[in-house]
Design a protein that fits this description.
Layout (H helix, E strand, L loop, with lengths): L1 H12 L1 H6 L25 E7 L7 H16 L2 E7 L4 H14 L3 E4 L4 H13 L4 E4 L10 E5 L1 H15 L6 E7 L5 H20 L2 E8 L5 H14 L6 E4 L2 H13 L13 H9 L5 E3 L2 H16 L3 H7 L2 E5 L4 E8 L2 E3 L4 H6 L5 H4 L5 H6 L4
Parallel strand pairs: 1-2, 1-3, 3-4, 4-5, 5-11, 6-7, 6-8
Antiparallel strand pairs: 9-12, 10-11
Helix pairs in contact: 3-11, 4-5, 6-7, 8-9, 11-12
The structure holds beta-D-glucopyranose (BGC).
Beta-D-glucopyranose binds next to loops.
Pfam family, one: Peripla_BP_4
Protein name: Substrate-binding domain-containing protein
Subcellular location: Cell envelope
Amino acid sequence: MRSKTLALAAVGAGVALVLSACGANEAPAPGAGGSSSGVAAPSGGTKVGVILPETATSARWEGFDKPMIIEAMKAQGLDADVQNAQGDTATFTRLADSMITQGVKVLVIASINSELGKTVAAKAANAGIPVIDYDRLNLGGSSKYYVSFDNSKVGELQGQAMVTALKDKAGAQVIEIEGAPTDNNATLFYQGQQKALKPAYDSGALKLVRSQPIDNWDNQKGGQAFEQILTQNGGKVDGVVAANDGLAGAVITVLNKNGLKVPVTGQDATAAGLQAVLRGEQYMTVFKPIKQEAEATAKLAAALAKGDTAAADAIATQTEKDPKGNRDVKSVLLTPQTITKANVKDVITAGYVKASEVCTPELKAACTEAGIS
Ligand code: BGC
């Protein structure tokens, strides 16, 4: 009952207010968007369990996904219990076990890694509960449905942006700070980036210094790895492909410390990322309209909760390859958008981040210039 009240309060207060409670990669204020510890007691509507992976790897999970999923599920007459495993696999397992025991009608998982997701999906299937892989596909898993973005396209946008940013600097040196090797998305982002970057590396237009995957998307480790590579390269870098805004922020801290300013990519269109773009420290970010991801997931969940697989299949009309399981997973794959200084406004207009969160006194002039008021 208590968590239902909190969830309703969050929905009533509007997503923007919930988002305003979140800084760069910080957890939101207590009470923002529902309960955060333990699994809520069952209440009224059809119960759907949702487990998000982390808080610290990106501000998106608590800032965008959680409130948007709660709202989208509610619109479908579903009662979503949205929990976050905080990057801890044991917590993820405990939350999943508890939701399965409670008899949720559908389980939605954005897993910390594929192995964990695969194990959880198998347990749920055993209990007759359909599973949706949310945002991250669990390789070798059994989930029948997947909702995400075209993640190869996300990487392509990042790679293209770097090629554009460095087009007048022949032989420019690029360092790549990539996501977790255990997250299939990180692999897809990398593959997409290389579509744009490899021809430039091959022709000598750009020079790759090093590509470094970062375990668990750990932002701090990303900054440390970048610093080490930069030092080993004699302090020389002309551009950094960072896989998301969190890693980009850590890279920018190191660049600033060394008095360097070079194009840096990002992803997630977080408030901190948008501020870095306006400040001219981050060249671009990728906006993924998570509201669409939440809505597609809620519609799928509503169909699956009724056992209506024909309706579910009519929603998930695309497919994503699971190379490990050697199967095509029925999917909804949404379209990402490049954000540079010129269109930061789009993210604010779409209601993801409030102008007041981005346009701090320091950035008032940049905001005016970018048409944000
Ligand atoms: C998500 C990104 C996010 C990253 C780290 C990926 O799976 O698609 O949006 O930045 O995980 O949390």
